[in-house]
Amino acid sequence: MTPKTRERLIGVLLVVALVVAALPALVQLGWHLRIFAGRAGFPLDLEWMEGGMLVHAQRLAAGQGIYVKPTLDFVPYLYTPLYPALLALLSLVFPLGYLLGRVVSLLALFAALVLLGALVVREARGLARVRRLLAALIAVARRPSWRPLT
Asked: What is the DSSP string of 1-45?
């Protein structure tokens, strides 16, 4: 087998692996959308920080600080302010609530995936690009054990 034929065969095998890896990744993204659609309008916290982040956003929208001395009424989370600030800004147009926070979170997930794909495409050429895209798809397809399916 000549080196050129070998390289071509490796390229074909990597593309096949890429397609095979893309299927579970797409299934995983479909599950995310299904779970999101089922839970988006639920009127209570789905996770312990949701309500607290909405309170942070509400305080920012009202012009109050979020890094203040803890009181009985408000104890700040020691997290960066981008998420509650974005929610506060969006609350000028949309109602501040669970749905807005969940939509922003879902959009952030998909933005991160698009950024990952763009970085792979930009940073690699040829077979290296296919290998890195394959690694990214496998990472997306992996279902962490802590995330429930239902």
From this structure: --HHHHHHHHHHHHHHHHHHHHHHHHHHHHHHHHHHHHHTT-SS-
Place of tokens 């997930």: 109
Cβ-in-10-Å burial (0-12, 13-18, 19+) of 76 comes to middle
Contact 20, 138 (CB under 8 A): no
| Closest to 49 measured CA to CA, from 129, 2, 105 | 105
Give me the helix-helix angle, 3-39 and 126-141, nearest 10°.
30
63's torsion region: left (phi>0), alpha (psi -120 to 50) or beta?
left
Residue 84 · residue 91 · CB < 8 Å = no
Whole-model pTM above 0.85? no
pLDDT in tens, 77-106: 999 999 999 999 999 999 999 999 999 998
6 touches 122 (CB < 8 A): no
Report the alpha-carbon distance of residue 52 to residue 58 in Å, rounded. 10
